[in-house]
Design a protein that fits this description.
The protein has 14 helices and twelve strands. The protein is of the alpha/beta class and about 425 residues long. The longest helix is centred in the last third of the chain and has 25 residues. The strands form two sheets. A seven-stranded mixed sheet has the order 9-8-7-6-10-11-12, with helices on both faces. It has a five-stranded mixed sheet with strand order 1-2-4-3-5. Among the domains are: about 140 residues, Leucine Dehydrogenase, chain A, domain 1 (Rossmann fold, 3-Layer(aba) Sandwich), CATH 3.40.50.10860; about 160 residues, Rossmann fold, CATH 3.40.50.720. The protein binds nicotinamide-adenine-dinucleotide (NAD).
């Protein structure tokens, strides 16, 4: 069986093949959309705390910049590989196009286990990686952001390293920075909040009341934890949440504040810290009886193996690529309404775009300005995808692909092929 990263890339390419029949274009152009434009693999040394030197491997993959500069996060994970980063870069292109912001798609990653690195090692790794990829990034070229196991502090080191080499501050080289360094208000919350905005639109569309709706969330990092808080605020009942080690479940609804406090304090979810809970595995969590299921951890978790047992009415993809195309077919047959990743989790890239615009213009927007603009873009995009879903009688994922890939294709045809 192919490696996980290769399977992820095959899945991303298959999604383009599936949407191809809706476009009357040269197959060569579609082939171009399935390939990346530039790929940088770097091997670099990092001095460890014990004085030894370790060589790490990192990637920056630029998929497409037809509609604007490359944009996409940087992931630190032991299983990151080139194929996974290629797939994630491709999804960024479609996502930026679905919400109609002038960015292309890119992604980066370093194969490492950040849980085993000290802060000093993490900083040295980040700075050296930034230096290695500095030939490819920049505010007009390619703008990284946080992803799995990277955060505002990592973005601060990237900004500082890049700026040091330039000789002046370049805040626009990266988004998701701390507020003190030109980060945008609302960026940290944007992806999780966007997941909830999309879910509210889906509930409205399907006539499912959010009040009391039972929500299950896989992952309680940036996306999962913020989504949990906004679901709680909206009156929904989060009945289960997990991290990489497993989850906690309470059919009457979890004390979200206690669960997230525990995660913050002990870096894990402890049953004794959250009253009335049962311990469950990530596998069991996905199959719980619920109204709304939000995978917000890693890709490829809903497959043809477990899809028949998914009981949610709505699946909202906080993570990138959590559902395989084979699982998609099963979910569609079961009548489960899927809000696809390139729509559901686009809040992050939208506010990243706001941050970049503020940096380039040397302006600071208010919280209200960011919140209103984010909500407008996500609601409009949801309506545009639903309109295609109804008109062409296709799934929400296919509708989002018709919109996103279609916009990139139009831009390609307008620009033409050089020479
Ligand atoms: P994060 O590092 O903040 O959190 C990741 C979470 O996933 C953690 O709670 C971790 O414990 C959990 N996890 C890791 N491995 C797991 C496993 N095998 N099973 C279950 N849980 C596991 O990362 P994040 O930024 O919240 O990203 C989560 C997902 O959302 C990723 O797919 C990412 O690409 C996507 N995403 C993130 C953003 C963003 O702005 N951060 C934007 C769009 C999409």
């Amino acid at each position: 069986m192919a490696e996980k990263g290769t399977q992820t890339l095959e899945m991303a390419r298959k999604q383009v093949d599936l949407v191809a029949k809706y476009f009357d274009v040269d197959p060569g152009i579609l082939e171009r959309l399935k390939s990346t434009k530039r790929e940088l693999t770097v091997h670099f040394p990092v001095k460890m705390d014990d004085g030894s030197v370790r060589v790490f491997t990192g990637y920056r993959v630029q998929h497409n910049d037809t509609r604007g500069p490359f944009k996409g996060g940087i992931r630190y994970h032991p299983e990151v590989d080139l194929d996974e980063v290629r797939a994630l870069a491709m999804w960024m292109t479609w996502k930026s196009a679905v919400v109609n912001i002038p960015f292309g798609g890119a992604k980066g990653g370093v194969q490492c286990n950040p849980k085993e690195l000290s802060q000093g090692e993490l900083e040295r790794l980040t700075r050296r990686f930034t230096w290695e990829i500095s030939i490819a990034i920049g505010p007009e070229v390619d703008i990284p952001a946080p992803d799995v196991y990277t955060n505002p502090q990592v973005m601060a080191w990237i900004m500082d390293t890049y700026s040091t080499f330039k000789g002046y501050a370049v805040p626009g080289v990266v988004t998701g920075k701390p507020l003190e360094l030109g980060g945008s208000v609302g960026r940290y919350e944007a992806t999780g909040k966007g997941v909830v905005i999309s879910t509210l639109k889906a509930c409205e569309y399907l006539n499912i009341p959010i009040e009391g709706a039972r929500v299950v969330i896989q992952g309680c990092g940036n996306v999962g934890s913020i989504a949990a808080q906004y679901f709680d605020k909206a009156g929904a009942k989060v009945i289960a949440i997990s991290d990489s080690k497993g989850g906690l479940y309470n059919e009457k609804g979890l004390d979200i504040r206690a669960a997230l406090d525990c995660k913050k304090r002990y870096a894990c979810l402890l049953q004794e810290e959250v009253s009335g809970t049962e311990v469950i595995t990530n596998k069991e969590l996905l199959e719980l009886d619920c109204d709304i299921l939000v995978p917000a951890a890693l890709e490829g978790v809903i497959t043809e193996e477990n899809a028949p047992r998914i009981k949610a009415k709505i699946l909202v993809e906080g993570a990138n690529g959590p559902t395989t195309p084979e699982a998609d077919e099963i979910l569609a047959e079961k009548g489960i309404f899927v809000v696809p990743d390139i729509l559901a989790n686009a809040g992050g890239v939208v506010v990243s775009y706001f941050e970049w615009v503020q940096n380039l213009q040397e302006l600071l927007w208010s919280e209200e300005e960011v919140a209103t603009r984010l909500e407008n873009i996500l609601k409009r995009s949801f309506d545009e995808v639903v309109a295609i879903h109804e008109e062409k009688k296709v799934t929400m994922r296919m509708a989002a692909y018709i919109l996103g890939v279609g916009r990139v294709l139009k831009a390609h045809l307008l620009r033409g092929i050089y020479p």
